[in-house]
Amino acid sequence: MASPLVGWQNGDTSRGTFSIITTCATTIFACTWTIQHLNVPAAHDGELRRHVRVCKWMVITILLPELILAHAILEFAMALGCMREMEKKVAVSLDERESKIQVKYPSWMTRLWSFPAIWRRARARLLPRLRPDGLRDVEEQRRPRSTTSQTSEQGSPASQISEQREGSMSPRQTSEQGRPSSMAGETPDKLTWTLTHAYFANMGGFVYNPDWDGVRHQFKPAARPMTGIRLAAHLDFLRCPRITEAEIKDKSKTDGLGKVFSVFQISHLMLSLIVRRAQGLPISQLEVLTLAFAVCGVATYAAYWYKPKDIIVPVQLGSLNELVVGPDRDLRNRAKDDFETFRSFDSFWRVLVNDPGGTKDGLHRVPNDNIPANSDGFTHGATLLLAFVSALFSSLHAIAWSFDFPTAAEATIWHVCTILTILLPPLGLLGIPLSQATWRRGNDARDFLDASERVLRELAWLLENHWQKKEVEMARRKLEGLYHSSLGLDTPSTRQLYRDLLPAEIRKQMLDFVDKKGPFQNRAELELPRNYAPHLRQLFLLADGQGPKKMVEQVARTNVFPRGSLPTAFNSWFLYIAMGSYCVARLVLVAVAISSLRAMPQAVYNATWAEYIPAM
């Protein structure tokens, strides 16, 4: 028999309505305000702007807590990627400077990764006594090559690099005591690079002056962030900042104890609900709603455990001229080209709206939606993670599916909104791969390549400047060579990006030539394919980074362009509609959860022993 519904309860001898509201409100506050771990602001960001930014992310956390969780997981993966990249650089380096750097993973992580090695050693001891000789040989063949073929390959360069990596800092490769080699032999003169260092660097904790020649240029930004991935990727010619983990934690505004208190508040609600469920007592819809926040909150805190919090002033590294090791001019030129074009992170928002722009590191600060850079040109893994986390988070609302509601209409609204919040995020994110789909239209790649070569031929004939004529002729010869070599072949040499073959100045001249502008107004007619002009404009927009990510990185190539795709606005509107509907459904769930407090089952207010545990 269902428990009778009662109204507002003061809670003099049991828990009351107000205590339920305050507990849920405190937990939601811990999951939205104190959980924020924003990146280091720019030097010109004032206090008001910083507070507005925090409030903005608090609103995002209330409406989309699963987005914050997905971003925290991606930031954790980005920090681990920085550790692995730093580890590889140190392992293969023979330079004394880099040999003084050691990568140290958290102890729990090294123990976790040592379990497979411990199991293999235990199995190796047991197998000779439990298996026949034939099966023992099979097991020996399955063992790592370092135990069977290391002697035979010891003299090869590849084996030497492998030995250096095995003897370096990898947490997966442990010593006989079950500890990684990176934790052995620590000396005071070594710089220890920890997960806190990786987080600190990726959040913009290190800044540098983009100056290669020792002269501060007037129009260059005073400071740019040196992310951990960028630093690790160029460690062969950059000095690593010497800062200890204790110094970084000293700059952080929240220590581990503060995080423990927040996690305790969240866990208190979760324990209370588990106890009530075990005793067969009902819970309110508001507590179910808060439970979803609590699960996301605990997982987010776990992912952010090593990330510093509320750091305002970054560490100044000086100019690149001071950071680059060695006076070799050729080394500096090669380093400069690679360093300035290197991309160490993507923008979560730009990935969601399928916008490839704005992902380079020439910024005054690291944006708060930074995620690992995607280099394959296809749909970013962040979208799949967000779809999974969103569906998992929203499915927690189904716990209240069979609860007693004040009216049948409110129960129906809860059911419909629960289903919508589960389905809308994956459907909304489906627009990203749809907008990245391409198909052949009009001219094929060889016809477009041939037409571009003929345009460059006429352009070189009409240009008067000797150096411009020479550059255009060089570009024309490249296209001509690709045109002849691409016949029936699909090799890496024929899959080149147009932006690498045609510099920006030549692209502008080609457009002026095709459109008969500037010095080419009175040029002779040139027979070109029917849609060549719009295709050329589209190509040059892609070459400038304007367009869907897949089109920019995979389609604007000599072997496939021109191809068609859905307009970028399709993905944006698809996402906006799905996200807007999702937020409305979430707000409706909140409204129904609050309105249901006016008529709750009497047993909801029966107290358990968990309610007597002190909490904030």
Automatic annotation (TrEMBL):
Region (Disordered): 137-187
Signal peptide: none
Keyword Membrane on entry: yes
UniProtKB keywords: Membrane, Transmembrane, Transmembrane helix
Bias type Polar residues, positions: 146-162, 170-180
Protein source organism: Chaetomium strumarium
Transmembrane annotation, as ranges: 57-80, 288-306, 382-401, 413-432, 573-594
Protein name: Uncharacterized protein
